[in-house]
Amino acid sequence: MSASFDYYRTFYYVAKYKNFTRAAVVLLSSQPSVTRSIQNLESELGCRLFIRSRHGVALTPEGETLYRYVAPACERILRGEEELGLSLGLHGGAVSIGATETALHCMLLDRLASFQKEHADVKIRISNGTTSHVLSELREGRTDMAVVPTPFQIEKPFSSARLKPVRSILVGGPRFSFLCARKNSLKSLSGYPLAGLPAATMSHQFYADFFASHGLSLHYDIELASADLLLPVAAHNLGLAFMPEDLAAGALSENHVFAIPLREEIPLRHICLVRNAGSPLGAAARCLADMLLAERTDES
Known about the structure:
The protein is an alpha/beta fold and about 300 residues long. It is about 45% helix and about 20% strand. Helix 5 (about 100-120) links the parallel strand 3 (about 95-100) and strand 4 (about 125-130). Helix 1 (about 5-15) crosses helix 2 (about 20-25).
């Protein structure tokens, strides 16, 4: 016995409303089609399910027995479809996004605040970590998208789009404020303690490439676990640190740290949106991605 679910769904609505015409309206079907479905179901089950009259239909004892099992099953499936529709739509939807500390503080938090004002009922889950960690979560399907700074490496079907340029500067605490009086060479920095992220991070790779382009090697005297420690370490005179200018803006204005001029120009980094082009986004995630792309201040 292998009656299709469509037959049982039709049976459910006919039994619920005790009327073929009303069931057809709800099913966006025609009365003859509903009648055929019921006849086919009765034929497959080998019994009559309804007693028909001018006033509508009533369930037979066999129909009553079947309805006790079909009704809760259909109602659970219909509720599941409804909840799925909500999660895929903006109303009650959800979006999961991965981001680095730099991406969060230099751009993403402001954008998410604007998004939430327009879509207050959308649930937002933020997963943060290093670029490698964030991209790994995206590859494994744990997040809908990633927002990370260059450099990084991706392969198809993943694609990226630039959202915002990031200017990096060298900062130091009051102990090193005398360095602000002149432009300093990268080579001269070897005489001062440097703080930065571990060699496994993309941030380290970026600055290592910058040093290498000038024939120098990068060595940190203080190695930090996360980017959010760079500013406190510099402000406490523990060492000089490279960081995005946006992250240091508040501390610079209050003279907790000072921007140290360099002869060599630090290349721009770019905060990028990374997506899996082969995996469709839900409505909420798609809306957020569209907003990020529409408000970008960088060339794609």
